[in-house]
Q: What sequence folds into this?
């Protein structure tokens, strides 16, 4: 069993910054790709950013140049640095971790979500 604990959400004014964290613990052999998704009220969950085990990153067009995903493998933690925030970035943000358990089964887990609210 893997637990993901997210933190860092909150209320910020437009143009401000937040840093989200997602820490994984439990029965993990290795972590592969990690994704951040967001879901605004009444909308589908959308992919925001992804980072591979090798550190390659990819971003949704809407956040390119403003958000940065990074990971600390020693701490099994992924971060999402969010700069120049806009009201349309307001959503619940979820991390999704793809990992191998000690039995080498490929699994994934979701964080509980952290709310980001950007005021205009």
A:
């Amino acid at each position: 069993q893997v637990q993901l604990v997210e933190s860092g959400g909150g209320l910020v004014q437009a143009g401000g910054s937040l840093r989200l964290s997602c820490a994984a613990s439990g029965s993990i052999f290795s972590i592969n790709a990690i994704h951040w998704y967001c879901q605004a009220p009444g909308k589908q969950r959308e992919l925001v950013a992804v980072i591979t085990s090798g550190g390659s990153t990819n971003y949704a067009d809407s956040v390119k140049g403003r958000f940065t995903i990074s990971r600390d493998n020693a701490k099994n933690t992924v971060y999402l640095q969010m700069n120049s925030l806009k009201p349309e970035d307001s959503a619940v943000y979820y991390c999704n971790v793809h990992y191998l358990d000690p039995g080498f089964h490929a699994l994934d887990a979701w964080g509980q979500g952290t709310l980001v609210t950007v005021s205009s």
Notes: The first strand starts at residue 2 and ends at 7. The chain is about 0% helix and 60% strand.
